[in-house]
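User: Okay, second chain of the day. Same drill as before: sequence in, structure tokens out.
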Amino acid sequence: MPKPKKPKPLAIRNSTVDIAQDTKFFSDITELLTTARANTYRAVNSVMVETYWRIGQRIVEQEQNGKDRADYGDYLIVNLSRHLTDTFGKGFSEANLQNMRLFYITFPEFPTQCVGNLPWTNIRTIMRLNDETERNYYLREASSENWSSRVLERNIKTGYYRRLLSSQKEKAPQAHVLETPDPTAFIKDPYILEFLDVPEDLQGKETVLETALLNNIQKFLLELGKGFSFVARQFRISTETDHFYADLIFYNYLLKCFVVIDLKTEKLAHADIGQMDMYVRMFDELKRAKDDNPTIGIILCADKSETLVKYSILKESRQIFASKYQTILPTEEELAAMIARENRKLLTLKEKLKIQ
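Assistant: Same drill. Structure tokens below.
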């Protein structure tokens, strides 16, 4: 019996150039496979999501055919679940089929542009929201920003959409889309910082808050929203005679401007507004590049008086904003209050438009 041939030994490459070439070669192949797998997942996911919508459509159509028979809908779902489970296995429980039915009812026109890269879990979460405008917002944002299921659930739970609305100045709807995004569309009030794991009362401890934010910078960037990137902490702005230090500096590539954040762990004071006004003016004059838009300043404070906001430059300013922060998740009552406040603003705006 002939002896089996020994495998050839691997070639030894000692040259630094050879090793670098091999590393790049391995990296290129890895990137090809990673990209292919991601594209395959998106393609399969897109087909499956559309199939779920079509299943929901057929269920509703079949229910309408038998609407004269009592409990026909329940009978239909139960028997369809049994048939599909016997044929295809798991994934077709009565609850999941009800979700597909709800998917079609919620979105009678299949939202092709939004759901292609959204997992079914995210779609199920979004379609349970009662407000159509809010649903469409989360559908677009989760799709364009590739939110994970965990990020989406947190944003809904913390009233992400409502907090964006609460910070916007009252104005008539625009008839056209501006080339430069409106800064107010990027500001929230309040900002929810439950991920910091710090005491609720941080009075006089700005450094503790600043350090906690930097230790959780990725989560803080998600809370800030689209387009933000971190630049520096305790950023020095110098004039001929003085040095000033801004707590946190970000840049928003969508707004094309710097964003200065000043941390205040106490109630907002008039001096805080004046300080931020100075920071914004100095940044515009000393740091802003030729192609940048005007600098935005956000005072992140523990509390604020609406009277102070009303009778200060904050009322009309398009560059300076004051938002509260919370280190715990909002209660259902607080979220309900946000919704009620926004409904009042919308009613006021409608009345103004009628008068005009």
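The first strand starts at residue 191 and ends at 192.

User: Thanks, on to the next one.
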